[in-house]
Amino acid sequence: VSFIWNELLSSAIDGVFLTNVASRIWNDMTQTDKDHFKNIADEIKILQSDFHKGKHYKKKPVATTFHNYAIEDFGKRKNKKE
Q: Which domain of life does the UniProt lineage start with (predicted)?
């Protein structure tokens, strides 16, 4: 099994590929196997929480995607030197 994982990881180009592979493996697992991995994930969350006890995370502000521009200014940058 580790040989298969090593081959998959060495041929992985991006995260999308790895996500697809993990999804296929997960979907083929029995519920007992899934529960085993869920228990491991829960234990890791507890360890991570204990390791970073007292650390507070701030939510990042949501970036504005759309801006209101006048049609005559469309395509011009405000800080562009002319």
A: Eukaryota
Sign of CA dihedral 38, 40, 43, 45: negative
Parent domain of 44: 2-55
Residue with the bigger pLDDT between 63 and 37: it is 37
Identify whether the C-beta of residue 37 lies closer than 8 Å to the C-beta of residue 22. Answer: no
Give how far Cα 71 sits from Cα of 2, 66, 77, Å: 59, 14, 13
Q: What is the pLDDT of residues 26-57, one digit of tens each?
A: 999 999 999 999 999 999 999 988 888 888 77
pTM (predicted TM-score): 0.45
Q: Flag whether 27 is in a domain.
A: yes
Is residue 67, in this structure, part of any structural domain at all? no
Chain-centroid distance of CA 59 in Å reads 16
Count: domains in the chain: 1
